[in-house]
Amino acid sequence: MPHITETALSEQLSPEYFWRSPDQAGQVDKDDWKYHSIWESRAKTDVPQVVHSQMQAFAVFLYQANPVAHRLIDLIVDYTVGEEITIRGRDAETQEVLERFWFDWHNDWPNRLHDLARDTAINGESLYVLDDVQPTTGLIRVRHFDPSFISAVKPDESDLSRPAYVHLKQGLFIRPPEMSDAEYNAKHVLSLIRDTGDGKHRELQGQALLLQINKVASATRGLSDLLSLLNWLDVLERFLGNVADRLAHLGMWFYDITLEGASDREIRNYREKLLREPPRPGALRVHSDRVTWKPTAVNLPGEDIASPSLLFMSHILTGAGIPVHWASQSGAAGRTVAADAQDPIFKHLSTRQGVLRRFVRRILEYQIYVAQSTGKLAKKRGEFGLFFPRIGLRDLQRAGGAAARFLEVLSHLVDSG
What we know:
Blueprint: H1 9-12, H2 15-18, H3 49-65, H4 67-81, E1 86-89, H5 92-102, H6 109-123, E2 125-133, E3 140-145, E4 150-156, E5 159-168, H7 181-186, E6 189-191, E7 194-195, E8 204-205, E9 208-212, H8 230-250, E10 253-259, H9 264-276, E11 291-297, H10 306-320, H11 332-340, H12 343-373, E12 384-387, H13 393-416
Antiparallel strand pairs: 1-12, 2-3, 2-9, 4-5, 5-6, 7-8, 10-11
Helix pairs in contact: 3-4, 4-6, 4-12, 5-12, 8-10, 11-13
Protein backbone atom coordinates (compact mmCIF):
# COMPACT_ATOMS: atom_id res chain seq x y z
CA MET A 1 0.00 0.00 0.00
CA PRO A 2 1.46 3.40 -0.92
CA HIS A 3 2.18 5.84 1.86
CA ILE A 4 0.67 9.30 1.76
CA THR A 5 4.12 10.83 1.54
CA GLU A 6 7.64 10.37 2.79
CA THR A 7 7.20 13.11 5.40
CA ALA A 8 4.93 13.22 8.41
CA LEU A 9 1.42 14.44 7.68
CA SER A 10 1.64 17.33 10.12
CA GLU A 11 4.60 18.69 8.18
CA GLN A 12 2.46 18.87 5.05
CA LEU A 13 -0.34 20.84 6.65
CA SER A 14 -0.37 24.59 7.02
CA PRO A 15 2.32 25.95 9.35
CA GLU A 16 -0.12 28.48 10.73
CA TYR A 17 -2.07 25.62 12.29
CA PHE A 18 0.91 23.65 13.58
CA TRP A 19 3.12 26.67 14.42
CA ARG A 20 5.92 25.61 12.07
CA SER A 21 7.85 27.22 9.25
CA PRO A 22 5.93 27.15 5.95
CA ASP A 23 6.62 25.62 2.60
CA GLN A 24 7.15 28.56 0.25
CA ALA A 25 5.54 26.89 -2.74
CA GLY A 26 2.66 28.88 -4.18
CA GLN A 27 3.36 32.00 -2.10
CA VAL A 28 4.37 35.45 -3.30
CA ASP A 29 6.53 36.10 -0.25
CA LYS A 30 7.95 33.53 2.11
CA ASP A 31 6.14 35.07 5.08
CA ASP A 32 2.69 35.37 3.43
CA TRP A 33 1.29 32.76 5.79
CA LYS A 34 1.78 35.12 8.76
CA TYR A 35 -0.68 37.72 7.49
CA HIS A 36 -4.28 38.00 6.34
CA SER A 37 -6.60 40.74 5.16
CA ILE A 38 -7.94 43.18 7.73
CA TRP A 39 -11.39 42.46 6.28
CA GLU A 40 -11.10 38.75 7.06
CA SER A 41 -13.24 37.78 10.07
CA ARG A 42 -11.86 34.27 10.55
CA ALA A 43 -11.40 33.50 14.23
CA LYS A 44 -8.03 32.44 15.56
CA THR A 45 -9.62 29.15 16.59
CA ASP A 46 -10.44 28.38 12.96
CA VAL A 47 -8.39 26.15 10.71
CA PRO A 48 -6.98 27.92 7.62
CA GLN A 49 -8.65 27.01 4.35
CA VAL A 50 -5.51 25.36 2.96
CA VAL A 51 -5.32 23.13 6.05
CA HIS A 52 -8.99 22.27 5.83
CA SER A 53 -8.71 21.27 2.17
CA GLN A 54 -5.66 19.10 2.85
CA MET A 55 -7.34 17.54 5.87
CA GLN A 56 -10.32 16.51 3.76
CA ALA A 57 -8.08 15.08 1.03
CA PHE A 58 -6.02 13.07 3.53
CA ALA A 59 -9.08 11.87 5.42
CA VAL A 60 -10.78 10.64 2.25
CA PHE A 61 -7.57 8.91 1.14
CA LEU A 62 -7.11 7.20 4.51
CA TYR A 63 -10.72 6.02 4.55
CA GLN A 64 -10.25 4.49 1.12
CA ALA A 65 -6.76 3.02 1.61
CA ASN A 66 -6.11 2.48 5.33
CA PRO A 67 -8.00 -0.45 6.93
CA VAL A 68 -7.88 1.01 10.45
CA ALA A 69 -9.22 4.41 9.35
CA HIS A 70 -11.86 2.70 7.21
CA ARG A 71 -13.07 0.60 10.12
CA LEU A 72 -13.09 3.49 12.59
CA ILE A 73 -15.40 5.48 10.30
CA ASP A 74 -17.61 2.51 9.47
CA LEU A 75 -17.90 1.71 13.17
CA ILE A 76 -19.51 5.12 13.74
CA VAL A 77 -21.80 4.69 10.74
CA ASP A 78 -22.84 1.13 11.59
CA TYR A 79 -23.77 1.86 15.18
CA THR A 80 -25.46 5.24 14.65
CA VAL A 81 -27.51 4.63 11.48
CA GLY A 82 -26.79 0.99 10.66
CA GLU A 83 -30.44 -0.03 10.91
CA GLU A 84 -33.59 1.57 9.55
CA ILE A 85 -34.90 4.60 11.39
CA THR A 86 -38.58 5.09 12.13
CA ILE A 87 -40.65 8.19 11.32
CA ARG A 88 -44.13 8.35 12.83
CA GLY A 89 -46.47 11.18 11.94
CA ARG A 90 -49.16 12.04 14.44
CA ASP A 91 -51.77 11.86 11.69
CA ALA A 92 -52.11 10.14 8.32
CA GLU A 93 -51.59 13.35 6.32
CA THR A 94 -48.28 14.13 8.03
CA GLN A 95 -47.14 10.54 7.63
CA GLU A 96 -47.90 10.67 3.91
CA VAL A 97 -45.87 13.87 3.43
CA LEU A 98 -42.89 12.47 5.34
CA GLU A 99 -42.93 9.10 3.58
CA ARG A 100 -43.17 10.75 0.17
CA PHE A 101 -40.13 12.85 1.02
CA TRP A 102 -38.15 10.01 2.66
CA PHE A 103 -38.68 7.35 0.00
CA ASP A 104 -38.68 9.64 -3.02
CA TRP A 105 -36.64 8.09 -5.84
CA HIS A 106 -34.32 11.09 -5.96
CA ASN A 107 -33.99 11.71 -2.22
CA ASP A 108 -33.55 8.00 -1.32
CA TRP A 109 -32.98 8.78 2.37
CA PRO A 110 -32.65 5.12 3.49
CA ASN A 111 -29.33 5.09 1.61
CA ARG A 112 -28.55 8.81 1.83
CA LEU A 113 -28.63 8.61 5.64
CA HIS A 114 -25.53 6.36 5.61
CA ASP A 115 -23.78 8.82 3.31
CA LEU A 116 -24.66 11.64 5.74
CA ALA A 117 -23.08 9.82 8.70
CA ARG A 118 -20.02 8.68 6.73
CA ASP A 119 -19.28 11.97 4.95
CA THR A 120 -19.73 13.96 8.16
CA ALA A 121 -17.27 11.74 10.02
CA ILE A 122 -14.70 11.90 7.20
CA ASN A 123 -14.99 15.57 6.21
CA GLY A 124 -16.32 17.10 9.42
CA GLU A 125 -19.17 18.71 7.46
CA SER A 126 -22.19 17.88 5.33
CA LEU A 127 -24.06 20.38 3.17
CA TYR A 128 -27.57 19.80 1.83
CA VAL A 129 -29.44 22.27 -0.41
CA LEU A 130 -33.24 22.26 -0.02
CA ASP A 131 -34.37 24.87 -2.55
CA ASP A 132 -35.79 22.50 -5.19
CA VAL A 133 -39.51 22.36 -4.38
CA GLN A 134 -41.93 20.54 -6.66
CA PRO A 135 -44.85 22.96 -7.24
CA THR A 136 -47.56 20.31 -7.63
CA THR A 137 -46.76 18.25 -4.52
CA GLY A 138 -44.68 20.50 -2.28
CA LEU A 139 -41.99 17.80 -2.26
CA ILE A 140 -38.40 18.91 -1.65
CA ARG A 141 -35.71 17.36 -3.83
CA VAL A 142 -32.53 17.38 -1.76
CA ARG A 143 -29.13 18.12 -3.31
CA HIS A 144 -25.89 17.17 -1.57
CA PHE A 145 -22.81 19.34 -2.06
CA ASP A 146 -19.41 17.86 -1.34
CA PRO A 147 -17.69 19.75 1.53
CA SER A 148 -14.63 20.22 -0.70
CA PHE A 149 -16.78 22.65 -2.76
CA ILE A 150 -16.97 25.03 0.22
CA SER A 151 -14.53 27.94 0.19
CA ALA A 152 -15.73 29.67 3.36
CA VAL A 153 -18.52 29.69 5.94
CA LYS A 154 -19.60 33.12 7.17
CA PRO A 155 -21.18 33.42 10.62
CA ASP A 156 -24.19 35.44 11.68
CA GLU A 157 -23.11 39.00 12.55
CA SER A 158 -25.20 38.94 15.73
CA ASP A 159 -23.99 35.50 16.85
CA LEU A 160 -20.58 34.35 15.59
CA SER A 161 -21.23 30.78 16.76
CA ARG A 162 -24.04 30.34 14.19
CA PRO A 163 -23.12 29.93 10.51
CA ALA A 164 -25.26 32.05 8.18
CA TYR A 165 -23.81 31.74 4.67
CA VAL A 166 -21.82 29.15 2.76
CA HIS A 167 -19.54 30.42 0.00
CA LEU A 168 -18.85 27.87 -2.72
CA LYS A 169 -15.70 27.80 -4.81
CA GLN A 170 -15.88 29.88 -7.96
CA GLY A 171 -16.39 28.04 -11.23
CA LEU A 172 -18.52 25.32 -9.67
CA PHE A 173 -21.49 26.06 -11.93
CA ILE A 174 -21.74 26.46 -15.68
CA ARG A 175 -22.31 30.10 -16.57
CA PRO A 176 -24.91 30.86 -19.25
CA PRO A 177 -23.87 33.63 -21.67
CA GLU A 178 -26.72 35.90 -20.58
CA MET A 179 -25.89 35.68 -16.84
CA SER A 180 -24.30 38.78 -15.32
CA ASP A 181 -21.30 38.74 -13.01
CA ALA A 182 -23.45 39.62 -10.00
CA GLU A 183 -25.89 36.81 -10.72
CA TYR A 184 -23.11 34.30 -11.25
CA ASN A 185 -21.34 35.28 -8.02
CA ALA A 186 -24.62 35.15 -6.09
CA LYS A 187 -25.13 31.58 -7.33
CA HIS A 188 -22.03 30.58 -5.34
CA VAL A 189 -23.43 31.88 -2.03
CA LEU A 190 -25.95 29.77 -0.11
CA SER A 191 -27.95 31.18 2.77
CA LEU A 192 -28.47 28.70 5.58
CA ILE A 193 -32.03 28.08 6.70
CA ARG A 194 -33.00 29.95 9.87
CA ASP A 195 -36.18 30.79 11.71
CA THR A 196 -37.05 34.49 11.46
CA GLY A 197 -40.39 34.13 13.20
CA ASP A 198 -41.45 35.57 16.54
CA GLY A 199 -41.18 32.27 18.43
CA LYS A 200 -44.91 31.57 18.19
CA HIS A 201 -45.12 31.42 14.42
CA ARG A 202 -42.31 29.81 12.45
CA GLU A 203 -40.86 31.61 9.43
CA LEU A 204 -38.09 29.59 7.81
CA GLN A 205 -35.89 31.33 5.26
CA GLY A 206 -32.83 30.09 3.43
CA GLN A 207 -31.63 27.50 0.96
CA ALA A 208 -29.48 24.93 2.73
CA LEU A 209 -28.62 23.16 5.98
CA LEU A 210 -25.04 22.62 7.15
CA LEU A 211 -23.98 19.99 9.67
CA GLN A 212 -20.59 20.47 11.37
CA ILE A 213 -18.78 18.41 14.02
CA ASN A 214 -15.58 18.65 16.09
CA LYS A 215 -15.53 22.45 16.16
CA VAL A 216 -15.41 25.01 18.92
CA ALA A 217 -18.16 27.62 18.98
CA SER A 218 -16.09 30.42 17.44
CA ALA A 219 -14.75 28.29 14.55
CA THR A 220 -16.51 28.34 11.20
CA ARG A 221 -15.46 24.94 9.83
CA GLY A 222 -16.05 21.41 11.06
CA LEU A 223 -13.17 18.96 11.42
CA SER A 224 -12.79 15.33 10.44
CA ASP A 225 -12.88 12.56 13.04
CA LEU A 226 -9.55 11.45 11.55
CA LEU A 227 -7.70 14.78 11.85
CA SER A 228 -6.09 14.05 15.24
CA LEU A 229 -5.28 10.50 14.08
CA LEU A 230 -3.69 11.25 10.71
CA ASN A 231 -0.07 11.10 11.84
CA TRP A 232 -0.54 8.04 14.04
CA LEU A 233 -2.36 6.12 11.35
CA ASP A 234 0.59 6.86 9.08
CA VAL A 235 3.05 5.76 11.79
CA LEU A 236 1.20 2.47 12.28
CA GLU A 237 1.05 1.84 8.54
CA ARG A 238 4.79 2.48 8.14
CA PHE A 239 5.59 0.23 11.09
CA LEU A 240 3.51 -2.65 9.75
CA GLY A 241 5.01 -2.13 6.30
CA ASN A 242 8.49 -2.48 7.76
CA VAL A 243 7.37 -5.62 9.61
CA ALA A 244 6.05 -7.08 6.35
CA ASP A 245 9.37 -6.33 4.62
CA ARG A 246 11.26 -8.01 7.47
CA LEU A 247 9.07 -11.11 7.33
CA ALA A 248 9.53 -11.26 3.55
CA HIS A 249 13.33 -11.23 4.01
CA LEU A 250 13.08 -14.06 6.54
CA GLY A 251 11.72 -16.30 3.81
CA MET A 252 14.63 -15.62 1.46
CA TRP A 253 17.76 -17.71 0.97
CA PHE A 254 20.88 -17.53 -1.20
CA TYR A 255 23.89 -19.60 -2.28
CA ASP A 256 27.27 -19.21 -0.62
CA ILE A 257 29.68 -20.40 -3.34
CA THR A 258 33.29 -21.31 -2.55
CA LEU A 259 35.90 -21.57 -5.34
CA GLU A 260 38.88 -23.29 -3.76
CA GLY A 261 42.22 -21.94 -4.92
CA ALA A 262 40.68 -19.50 -7.44
CA SER A 263 42.17 -16.10 -8.10
CA ASP A 264 40.23 -12.86 -7.91
CA ARG A 265 39.96 -12.78 -11.69
CA GLU A 266 38.55 -16.32 -11.81
CA ILE A 267 36.03 -15.47 -9.08
CA ARG A 268 34.84 -12.38 -10.97
CA ASN A 269 34.49 -14.36 -14.22
CA TYR A 270 32.57 -17.14 -12.45
CA ARG A 271 30.24 -14.61 -10.83
CA GLU A 272 29.59 -12.83 -14.14
CA LYS A 273 28.76 -16.14 -15.76
CA LEU A 274 26.22 -16.94 -13.03
CA LEU A 275 24.64 -13.51 -13.40
CA ARG A 276 24.25 -14.10 -17.15
CA GLU A 277 22.91 -17.63 -16.67
CA PRO A 278 21.46 -17.98 -13.14
CA PRO A 279 20.56 -21.52 -12.05
CA ARG A 280 16.95 -22.54 -12.60
CA PRO A 281 14.91 -24.85 -10.37
CA GLY A 282 15.45 -28.47 -11.49
CA ALA A 283 18.50 -27.60 -13.62
CA LEU A 284 21.70 -29.70 -13.61
CA ARG A 285 24.81 -28.33 -11.90
CA VAL A 286 28.13 -29.90 -12.82
CA HIS A 287 31.35 -28.78 -11.11
CA SER A 288 34.66 -30.03 -9.82
CA ASP A 289 35.47 -30.76 -6.20
CA ARG A 290 37.02 -27.25 -5.99
CA VAL A 291 33.54 -25.64 -6.21
CA THR A 292 31.17 -25.79 -3.23
CA TRP A 293 27.57 -24.50 -3.26
CA LYS A 294 25.96 -23.99 0.15
CA PRO A 295 22.32 -22.77 0.51
CA THR A 296 22.10 -20.13 3.27
CA ALA A 297 18.95 -18.66 4.82
CA VAL A 298 18.57 -15.07 6.02
CA ASN A 299 19.06 -14.86 9.78
CA LEU A 300 17.75 -11.65 11.30
CA PRO A 301 17.74 -11.09 15.07
CA GLY A 302 14.32 -11.45 16.68
CA GLU A 303 12.47 -8.40 17.94
CA ASP A 304 9.35 -7.75 19.99
CA ILE A 305 7.03 -6.64 17.21
CA ALA A 306 3.65 -7.11 18.89
CA SER A 307 4.20 -4.62 21.73
CA PRO A 308 4.86 -1.52 19.54
CA SER A 309 2.00 -2.37 17.19
CA LEU A 310 -0.42 -2.74 20.10
CA LEU A 311 0.92 0.49 21.61
CA PHE A 312 0.27 2.40 18.38
CA MET A 313 -3.15 0.82 18.00
CA SER A 314 -4.09 1.65 21.59
CA HIS A 315 -3.08 5.27 21.08
CA ILE A 316 -5.18 5.51 17.91
CA LEU A 317 -8.21 3.86 19.47
CA THR A 318 -8.00 6.11 22.51
CA GLY A 319 -7.99 9.17 20.28
CA ALA A 320 -10.97 7.79 18.37
CA GLY A 321 -12.92 7.15 21.58
CA ILE A 322 -12.68 3.36 21.22
CA PRO A 323 -11.97 1.27 24.36
CA VAL A 324 -8.26 0.45 24.65
CA HIS A 325 -8.95 -3.15 25.61
CA TRP A 326 -10.18 -3.73 22.06
CA ALA A 327 -6.48 -3.71 21.10
CA SER A 328 -5.33 -5.86 24.03
CA GLN A 329 -4.92 -9.58 24.51
CA SER A 330 -8.17 -11.38 25.14
CA GLY A 331 -8.82 -13.98 27.78
CA ALA A 332 -10.64 -14.09 31.09
CA ALA A 333 -9.27 -10.75 32.28
CA GLY A 334 -9.89 -9.17 28.90
CA ARG A 335 -13.51 -10.34 28.87
CA THR A 336 -14.04 -8.92 32.35
CA VAL A 337 -12.70 -5.55 31.29
CA ALA A 338 -14.75 -5.63 28.10
CA ALA A 339 -17.92 -6.19 30.08
CA ASP A 340 -17.36 -3.14 32.31
CA ALA A 341 -15.67 -0.61 30.02
CA GLN A 342 -18.28 0.10 27.34
CA ASP A 343 -19.60 3.38 28.75
CA PRO A 344 -17.13 5.70 26.93
CA ILE A 345 -17.78 4.27 23.46
CA PHE A 346 -21.50 4.06 24.24
CA LYS A 347 -21.60 7.75 25.16
CA HIS A 348 -19.45 8.68 22.16
CA LEU A 349 -21.70 6.90 19.67
CA SER A 350 -24.88 8.06 21.41
CA THR A 351 -23.69 11.67 21.20
CA ARG A 352 -22.94 11.36 17.49
CA GLN A 353 -26.28 9.68 16.90
CA GLY A 354 -27.98 12.59 18.66
CA VAL A 355 -26.21 15.08 16.38
CA LEU A 356 -27.36 13.18 13.30
CA ARG A 357 -30.89 12.83 14.67
CA ARG A 358 -31.25 16.56 15.25
CA PHE A 359 -29.95 17.36 11.77
CA VAL A 360 -32.32 14.89 10.08
CA ARG A 361 -35.18 16.28 12.14
CA ARG A 362 -34.35 19.78 10.90
CA ILE A 363 -34.60 18.51 7.31
CA LEU A 364 -37.95 16.82 7.99
CA GLU A 365 -39.27 19.91 9.77
CA TYR A 366 -38.39 22.00 6.74
CA GLN A 367 -40.28 19.58 4.50
CA ILE A 368 -43.30 19.91 6.77
CA TYR A 369 -42.98 23.70 6.70
CA VAL A 370 -42.84 23.76 2.88
CA ALA A 371 -45.83 21.42 2.63
CA GLN A 372 -47.81 23.70 4.93
CA SER A 373 -46.69 26.85 3.10
CA THR A 374 -47.75 25.43 -0.27
CA GLY A 375 -51.13 24.29 1.04
CA LYS A 376 -50.34 20.58 0.79
CA LEU A 377 -50.65 20.09 4.55
CA ALA A 378 -52.88 21.84 7.05
CA LYS A 379 -51.21 24.19 9.54
CA LYS A 380 -52.56 22.21 12.48
CA ARG A 381 -50.87 19.07 11.17
CA GLY A 382 -47.16 18.31 11.04
CA GLU A 383 -46.18 16.76 14.38
CA PHE A 384 -44.05 13.64 14.13
CA GLY A 385 -41.59 11.45 16.01
CA LEU A 386 -38.14 10.40 14.77
CA PHE A 387 -36.57 7.25 16.20
CA PHE A 388 -33.03 6.09 15.47
CA PRO A 389 -31.81 2.52 16.11
CA ARG A 390 -30.95 1.78 19.71
CA ILE A 391 -27.26 1.35 20.48
CA GLY A 392 -26.99 -1.77 22.66
CA LEU A 393 -24.22 -2.36 25.17
CA ARG A 394 -24.31 -6.06 24.35
CA ASP A 395 -23.49 -5.27 20.71
CA LEU A 396 -20.54 -3.14 21.82
CA GLN A 397 -19.28 -5.94 24.07
CA ARG A 398 -19.40 -8.36 21.16
CA ALA A 399 -17.56 -5.89 18.95
CA GLY A 400 -14.88 -5.39 21.60
CA GLY A 401 -14.39 -9.12 22.05
CA ALA A 402 -14.14 -9.66 18.28
CA ALA A 403 -11.56 -6.87 17.93
CA ALA A 404 -9.46 -8.22 20.79
CA ARG A 405 -9.50 -11.76 19.39
CA PHE A 406 -8.53 -10.49 15.93
CA LEU A 407 -5.57 -8.54 17.32
CA GLU A 408 -4.52 -11.53 19.41
CA VAL A 409 -4.37 -13.70 16.28
CA LEU A 410 -2.47 -10.93 14.44
CA SER A 411 0.02 -10.67 17.32
CA HIS A 412 0.54 -14.45 17.30
CA LEU A 413 1.18 -14.49 13.56
CA VAL A 414 3.69 -11.64 13.83
CA ASP A 415 5.54 -13.29 16.72
CA SER A 416 5.72 -16.64 14.94
CA GLY A 417 7.09 -15.00 11.77
